[in-house]
Amino acid sequence: MKKIEIKINKTEILEKVSLSSAYLGYKAENAETLYDRISTIEADKPLLGEFWTEMCGIMTEKFREFIVNVEKEETGMNLTLELSNAYDDALTPSVKDNLVAAIVTGICGRWFRFTFPEKSEEWLNESGELIGSAMKKLCYRKKPVRGGKG
Question: What is the DSSP letter of 121?
Fold first, then answer.
């Protein structure tokens, strides 16, 4: 079996949540009122931290068949996954990108339940699709290669 490690930085995630919510508020039709309502501020960090914890739990549950170790620290989460020997290592950066995006959209979706309910389900669904994409990559097997001619 092959092991891979994926490190996810909490500060990076929360910065992306802040950028995503601000961008959505700025680009919306009624941006003058929506921006202030949905963009995150320093006082929102405890609630966003709760959403981070929820998403870490979801990631652990969704990928439990592969997980051999989870280290959750104040600074982030480290996942050690055990995969088939036929897993394509070239997919690992893309898997990490999917997981980061899934956590960001999942946190945004939870945040939008309070601040922009009409967009909440859309973001939560996107998070689920990103988790599914990561799962497909983790299950992908490279085709066996025969030894070359001498």
Answer: H
